[in-house]
Design goal:
mainly beta, about 120 residues, 5-stranded antiparallel β-sheet, SH3 type barrels, 1 helix
Length: about 120
């Protein structure tokens, strides 16, 4: 077995996050340190992709802020992520929905998956 994987598995802190995929709308509650103060900031947007696996897994979230698209990449096992909340499950046919970057208005909507 690879030595790096053994060390990573020893020091990894496993968090229970809900299941989400590309196309889902999520709110990420993220801890931010400003000097000696610490606060939680919410980042709500559409998941564009989940990348890698295991302890190195990351996911990209895109939101519109003042008419400008803002994307942020979060490590899934980061100690700064307080909570991940799934708001809507989207129905998409791809694992990586980068085509959403070029769409605006009603074309950029994603159908909701009903259960």
């Amino acid at each position: 077995m690879d030595l790096m994987k053994v060390v990573e598995s020893e020091f990894a802190v496993k968090k229970d996050h809900p299941n989400f995929n590309a196309g889902d709308t999520v709110t990420v509650h993220y801890k931010i340190k400003e000097g000696s103060k610490e606060r939680i900031q919410n980042f709500r947007g559409v998941v564009l992709q989940r990348k890698s696996s295991g302890h190195n897994e990351t996911f990209t979230v895109r939101k519109m802020s003042g008419g400008i698209g803002v994307e942020r990449i979060f490590p899934l096992n980061s100690p700064f992520i307080e909570e991940i909340e799934v708001n809507k499950h989207g129905r998409v046919r791809r694992a990586r929905i980068f085509y959403l970057r070029s769409l605006t208005g009603k074309k950029a909507r994603i159908k909701e998956k009903r259960f």
